[in-house]
Design goal:
The chain is mainly α and 279 residues long. It contains 16 helices and no strands. The two termini are 25 Å apart. InterPro entries: Cell_Wall_Dynamics_Protein, Lysozyme-like_dom_sf, Peptidoglycan-bd-like, PGBD-like_sf, PGBDSf.
Length: 279
């Protein structure tokens, strides 16, 4: 099976050097956390790649524009912190000045282990690293678990030697391996995000990573192999791709067809391939 480090090199060509080094994983942290099966690796990497914009983002940016703040208000995320939409959008002026210090101190204040806005904990402990570790409480908890002073030195969360540690701690605490074993990306996303924000992008990353994980299809069974891989990427369990259309694959085909309102045939046909995005 292709390694997570290989996936980084092939799927994230612009990845931050610190992340590339972290995924070399000399301590075998991924294996110790059980992120070692094809599905677990693919789901973990899909979440990480989404959260970090293809491993290019190492710390949460506070450079919010008025348009972006308006979207945050419209989504309902920050309504409790501002009197109205206009007040939320007006924060963009302050973000241009302090790059988000006031904003994060406010919206992350008095929660996640942070003190009130005047402590600036919300800014100090804003999202960092592979799964955007956020809040003084999380920095303290993962620091105690791994014996690393994340609370005292927050930027260690994104350091090559430690970047995997808080991410894998969160992954294990939220039982993401179990959700990955069921190939349930919506459930994995809820565990990581608390909702379904960015689900479509996470699905796109999963589909891309899954192709790398399973490798190239064998020439003698290319169509069946690709269909099985595409079914799994779409959330329909056809078993590990092997190019053999057995009972499990036929059941997945029928379930997929029912969900997409295609004719109920347990076979690979042109309409199925087109629906799955295959030629």
């Amino acid at each position: 099976m292709v390694t997570p480090h290989d996936i980084v090199l092939r799927a994230a060509p612009d990845a931050d050097d610190a992340y590339v080094a972290a995924f070399a994983d000399p301590e075998a942290l991924l294996a110790a956390a059980g992120v070692s099966t094809p599905l677990r690796v693919a789901h973990f990497m899909a979440q990480v790649l989404h959260e970090t914009a293809g491993l290019t983002l190492s710390i949460e940016s506070g450079r919010y524009s008025a348009k972006a703040l308006g979207r945050m208000w419209d989504s309902g995320n920050w309504r409790r912190y501002f009197a109205d939409r206009a007040a939320c959008v007006a924060m963009a002026g302050q973000c241009r000045i302090d790059h988000g210090v006031a904003l994060f101190s406010l919206v992350y204040g008095n929660r996640m282990g942070n003190g009130p806005p005047e402590t600036r904990d919300g800014w100090t402990y804003r999202g960092r690293g592979l799964l955007q570790t956020t809040g003084r409480g999380a920095y303290r908890r993962f620091g105690e678990r791994w014996g690393v002073p994340f609370e005292q030195e927050p930027d260690l969360v994104r350091a090559p030697a430690h970047a995997l540690k808080p991410a894998l701690g969160e992954w294990q605490d939220k039982k993401c391996n179990e959700a990955a074993d069921h190939n349930d990306i919506a459930r994995v996303t809820r565990c990581i995000n608390g909702g379904q924000i960015g689900l479509e992008d996470r699905q796109r990353w999963f589909a891309r990573v899954w192709r790398l994980v399973i490798g190239a299809p064998p020439a003698e069974n290319a169509t069946a192999w690709q269909v099985q891989a595409a079914l799994i990427a779409a959330g329909f369990d056809s078993g590990a791709p092997d190019g053999i259309v057995g009972p499990r694959t036929r059941a997945a085909i029928l379930a997929y067809r029912a969900a997409r309102q295609l004719p109920p045939l347990p076979t690979i046909t042109l309409d199925l391939r087109r629906s799955l995005g295959l030629r």
